[in-house]
Amino acid sequence: MVAVLRALALTGGDWVIWALLACSVAAVAIIVERFFALRREDKAFRALRKAVMAGLGEDLPSLEKTVQRHPGAAARILKTALARSHNGPEGVEDLLIAASLAEKEVLERRLLVLGTLGSNAPFIGLFGTVLGVIRAFHDLSMTAGGPEVVMQGLSEALVATAVGLFVAIPCVISYNYFSKGVKDLLGGTESLGRYLMANVREGKIKH
User: Fold this and answer.
1) Where are the domains of the chain?
2) Which of 34, 112, 100 has its CA nearest to residue 73?
């Protein structure tokens, strides 16, 4: 193990920087994909909520058709709940929760990557800096150069820490933003579903 660490140290931290840059490319791709995906889901939910609220005076089959015409996670959750509501509102709440949990996995797809990079990229960058420092002192011991050799090596090594922070900060911000977006979407869908079930229970929506 010591021999492996020594060999890594002598290579410096350049490979760590390139690895972090590759991770940043992957992170940007995930951020862009999740941004447009959640934006579509939010737009679909708003359209669905507007259509459902406008059709509250209809019977249950007509309301189901209204929900089926809309895409998105919210429509799939409500479709599952309305399919059971013919037998009464009992158990519909459990279906709402189960369907929401299933859709949550889809909506949070790849967010784990952003969370992992946001938490660990600074430490990976610090690891690269440590390797660079070790190499700088090794080069000093092998040459007759002065402190300039160490200073140059240290300045290059610190770049790894900077790159680690450069990768981590956008990942953390994006992870928190997308997580809140998923939470708001599912919360709004649950609220709409409970409102519909209350109307079914009170007989305002006929079977």
Assistant:
1) 2-201
2) 100
Cβ-proximal residues to 63 (8 Å cutoff; 6+ apart), any chain:
52, 55, 56, 82, 196, 205
The C-alpha atoms of residue 143 and residue 154 are separated, in whole angstroms, by 16
Q: How many CB atoms lie within 10 A of CB 111?
A: 17
CA distance to 9, 134, 148, 151, 178, per residue, from 15 (Å): 11, 15, 23, 20, 30
Q: Using 50, 70 and 90 to split pLDDT, how confident is the model at 134?
A: confident
Dihedral over Cα of 70, 75, 80, 85: its sign: negative
CB 91 within 8 A of CB 84: yes
- pLDDT tens for each residue of 94-121: 778 888 888 888 898 889 999 999 999 9
| Residue 88 banded pLDDT, cuts 50, 70, 90 | low
Confidence (pLDDT) at 197: 78
Are 103 and 77 spatial neighbours (Cβ–Cβ below 8 Å)?
A: yes
